[in-house]
Amino acid sequence: MQPIPPPPVAHPRAGGVLGALLDFEQAPGRYPVARREPALLFDQLGTVLRLASNRAVDGGTASAPRARQAARFFVRTVMLRSGADHYTLLGLTPAATPEQLREHYRMMIRLVHPDFVHAEEAWPADAAARINIAHDVLSSPERRQRYDATLAPPRAQPQPAPVVPPRPRGRGAPPKRLPARRTTQGVVAAILLLAGLGWWVGGPRRSGGSLMAQAPRPDKTVPPAGPVTAPPALRLEDVRPTLDQVLGALRSGRGETVLQVLHQEWRSHPETTRFVGDFNQRLAGRTVRGLDEVKNQLSRAADGFVVDSALDFRLQNAQQQDETLRLNLQSVFQVQQGSPVLTRLVAQP
C-alpha cells in the first residue's frame, strides 16, 4: 500500500503582508522589532521570505520587483539582525517541519550567496555562517530540543494562598466583652478631651482674637499634589534593533540608504544631509566587504540620548586591494510615546 502524501502547505495571502512591508521600508524606526513588531510580518515570516526569494505566493506568479525589494530589506534588517533567534532567522515557527526547514534554508542561503547577490545589495558578512548554524541546530532533534528549552524558561509555579479557618458564629458563640484595660483608657481619653476643650474656650485670648482655629503658615512652599513623572529611562537594549538597522543600511556603502531608518521629520535635516555626503565621500570608489562593531556606549544628552559607536569597515578599492576605515558614529535618539526613535546621525572625526 502506497503511503498517502502530505497535503500541500498553504501559503498566506500576501496582500496585507506587502502593505506592511512597504510601510516598514518607509519608516522602520517606528517599529520595536525586539517586541516582534510589526506583528503581521513576524506572524508571516514564511510569506516574507518567499517574496524576497521571488517565489510564488497565493498560488500566483512570482513577486514584483517592488515587493521583492521591500521583503529583502526586512530580511536583511530584521531576520538577520544581531540577536535574532534561529527560527526568526530562517522565517520559521517552533512547529516547523523538517521539509519547511529545508525549504527555508535553501531560500535564505541563496539570498546571501555571492553568485546571486545583486550589485546594489549588501548582506551581513556573517549571514551565511549564521544561516548554517541555525540549520545545523534545528535539523538535529536533540540540539533543537535543547535550544527550545533556552527560548522558553520554566515559569515559577504560583504558591497557594494560606487557608484561614472561619470564626465560629451562632447561638453557642460566647458574647464579646471589652477588656477592662481598654475601657479605662477610653474614660481617661474622654476626661482629657473635655479638659482641653474647656481650656480652649475659657483660656487667655489676644485682643481682637477669634475663636476660629488659625491654620499655621508653612515655612516652605508646598508643591502641588499630583504624580511626579520621571524622565523615561533608556537602555542600550532598547535601541539595539534600530542600531542593527543602521548597520544593515551602512553595509550597502551608500549613505542614502540610512534615511529609511531615521525618523521621517529628520530625514531632510541639515545634519542628515551632511552625514550622507560625508559618508559617501569617505567610501567613494570602494566596496564594503564587512563591518564590525568595536564599541557602543549610551549616554544622556540635553535633547535625548546618544549612542557613541566605533565601526570598522572592511573595504576593497578599485584596484582590488583591501582597506580598513574606522567610523566614529553618534546616533541621537528621542523617546516618543514610550519608544525610542532615531533622529540624527553624526560622523565624528
From TrEMBL:
<dbReference type="Pfam" id="PF00226">
    <property type="entry name" value="DnaJ"/>
</dbReference>
<dbReference type="InterPro" id="IPR036869">
    <property type="entry name" value="J_dom_sf"/>
</dbReference>
<feature type="compositionally biased region" description="Pro residues">
    <location>
        <begin position="155"/>
        <end position="167"/>
    </location>
</feature>
<protein>
    <submittedName>
        <fullName>J domain-containing protein</fullName>
    </submittedName>
</protein>
<dbReference type="InterPro" id="IPR001623">
    <property type="entry name" value="DnaJ_domain"/>
</dbReference>
<dbReference type="InterPro" id="IPR050817">
    <property type="entry name" value="DjlA_DnaK_co-chaperone"/>
</dbReference>
<feature type="domain" description="J">
    <location>
        <begin position="85"/>
        <end position="151"/>
    </location>
</feature>
<feature type="region of interest" description="Disordered">
    <location>
        <begin position="150"/>
        <end position="181"/>
    </location>
</feature>
